[in-house]
């Protein structure tokens, strides 16, 4: 569990009246370290509180961009709760920050989303985002992949005397074993454990010479939290060192295109059999 604090980012057009609309949230865990924020994309909440004519879409966009730039610069300055308090007290324009409140969580990224949904954007329901496993299932269940993709592939790894199950497999000269994986914001130990497992499995699968399916290769499709670009690059580099292919969830269309373009039939097509 991590102990930190959050502060609401508020739009306050008249400081004397102290009336404000929540437009974002800052979440910080100095010991992790973790410092992130999220701002509303539109002026909808401001207009609800102060009227439609309070601020134009263009003016809000400029205000949001300026605030984003300022908050990005604070990353190197906010080390403690006192640092944030000093910054809050220095604010003198329409963007204000609330007094920080303590919070305890095991998942900072999810906590940021939950705080934003509850305190800023709670009246604007968001469509549920599909996970990478669900997206793969939805695509690969189509009839065109019936004879190109195996499901729930059991693979014996003789060196370890164990069998592992991979959700999908297709043949294109190597038998590609597709493993969807989620990489949430975790401790370094958890991150290394998950990545290390895929590295180990990939090396064993790639070097296995006796498989009835022929040469094999692990294909990892990784899903990362917003802002996880650096993490994704590290995973990609570490897995490719051990012969795995790697795609981010956002690159799923590229993998699907590869299956369409290169996959070989896995068995005779029943529709082509006589009678």
Summarize the SSE layout with pairings.
Layout lengths: L1 E10 L9 E9 L4 E6 L4 H7 L6 H17 L7 H10 L4 E3 L3 E5 L2 H12 L12 H9 L9 E8 L4 E10 L3 E8 L5 H20 L8 E8 L5 H12 L4 E4 L3 H11 L13
Parallel strand pairs: 8-9, 9-10
Antiparallel strand pairs: 1-2, 1-4, 1-5, 2-3, 6-7, 7-8
Helix pairs in contact: 6-7
What does this structure look like?
Helix 7 links the parallel strand 9 (216-223) and strand 10. Helix content is 36%, strand content 26%. The chain has helices at 44-50, 57-73, 81-90, 108-119, 132-140, 188-207, 229-240, 252-262; strands at 2-11, 21-29, 34-39, 95-97, 101-105, 150-157, 162-171, 175-182, 216-223, 245-248. By secondary structure, it is α+β, with helices and mostly antiparallel strands. Strands 1, 2, 3, 4 and 5 form a 5-stranded antiparallel sheet that branches. A 5-stranded mixed sheet has the order 6-7-8-9-10, sandwiched between helices. It contains 8 helices and 10 strands.
